[in-house]
Structure formats: C-alpha cells, structure tokens
C-alpha cells in the first residue's frame, strides 16, 4: 500500500472514530445525528490537523490471544504484589520513574503498550516522548536497580507481544523475534 492510500485510510479511520464518538454522545442513531456528525467531522478536518490512525494491516489471532492471556496473568501478579505490600508495610512502599526506550514507532502499538501498562496495579504512564518512542513509567515497588530493570523488561515484553500480534506498516518486524531490524535484539524472555 502506498503512502497516499495509507494516509487516506488513516484519515478515514479517524473520521469513522469521530463519527462513532459523536453518535455515542448523542445516544441515538438517526439520520439527523449521523448527518450532523459527518458535518462535524468534515469541519474538524478543515480547521485542524487531526492525526491519522495508522492502519493495522493484519492481526495475528494466536499471538493476540497469547498477549491477552499474558496481560491477564500480569494483572493478577501485579495485583497480588501491590496488595501484599499495601497490607504488609503501606508506608514503606517505594516507587521510581523508569525510562523505557520502545522499539516500536507505531502509535497504535505504543498506545496499546501504554494502556496495558497503566491498567496494571503498580505501574502508570507518566510521560511519553512520541518522537523518540521513550516511555516514562512510574513503577512500584521499586527498591533497587534490579527491580527497576525488571519493571523495564516487563514493559518491553508487553511491547514485543503486541508487535507480534499487530502488523503495522510503521514497524518493520522480524516474525521470529518481534524486533525491528535496525535495533539490536534484547534478551528473550
């Protein structure tokens, strides 16, 4: 798919998303609501620089199911760890801001990673540098450099899972590792 078709598809995706939000806000689907929503979408594109939604060219169902199961496991484990520390010594839980250099350049993958990280107890996205694909995560409990590295590795594992599941033109992924060819591969899980 060439760049022009990709941008047009991305703009169409954003337009459909905006129209869906418009209809949900009104709470009904009728001709007036849809026509009004289309007018709002066209005006929004005319007066602003709305981003395009990068196209997902393929979803791999098995890696996506695996990513969902591993997310559920991560959610359970992080909930137990945070609950244990909150009950054991609530005043002594230490956290840290951890920088994670993401390998993906895709906004879809980075959005999925940041959402996944923020939904887990004990981690929260506090900053994102889109230009450098650099995430700043608040993690807890983090009492040592080893625990900070473990939290960083957890975010990178989540990113690898999602890069394997979602095929996006922005990311040149090797199917065997999920890594970008221009980035040295990290240690596998």
Automatic annotation (TrEMBL):
Leader sequence residues: none
Membrane topology: Multi-pass membrane protein
GO MF annotations in UniProt: monoatomic cation transmembrane transporter activity
GO cellular component: plasma membrane
Pfam families: MNHE
Subcellular location: Cell membrane
Membrane-spanning segments: 12-29, 35-56
Region Disordered, annotated ranges: 170-189
Keywords: Cell membrane, Membrane, Transmembrane, Transmembrane helix
Family the UniProt entry places it in: Belongs to the CPA3 antiporters (TC 2.A.63) subunit E family.
Name of protein: Multisubunit sodium/proton antiporter MrpE subunit
Taxonomic placement: Bacteria, Bacillati, Actinomycetota, Actinomycetes, Streptosporangiales
């Amino acid at each position: 798919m060439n760049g022009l078709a990709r941008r047009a598809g991305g703009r169409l995706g954003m337009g459909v998303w905006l129209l869906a939000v418009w209809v949900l806000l009104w709470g009904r689907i009728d001709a007036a609501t849809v026509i009004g929503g289309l007018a709002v979408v066209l005006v929004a594109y005319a007066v602003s620089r709305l981003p395009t939604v990068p196209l997902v060219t393929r979803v791999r169902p098995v890696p996506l199911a695996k990513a969902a199961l591993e997310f559920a496991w991560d959610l359970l484990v992080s909930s137990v760890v945070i609950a244990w520390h909150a009950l054991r010594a609530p005043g002594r839980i230490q956290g840290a801001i951890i920088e994670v250099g993401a390998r993906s350049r895709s906004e879809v993958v980075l959005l999925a990673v940041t959402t996944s990280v923020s939904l887990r107890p004990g981690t929260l996205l506090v900053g994102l540098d889109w230009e450098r694909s650099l995430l700043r995560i608040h993690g807890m409990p983090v009492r040592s450099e080893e625990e900070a590295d473990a939290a960083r590795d957890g975010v990178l594992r989540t990113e690898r899972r999602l890069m394997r599941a979602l095929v996006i033109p922005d990311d040149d992924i090797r199917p065997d590792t999920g890594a970008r060819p221009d980035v040295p591969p990290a240690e596998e899980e």
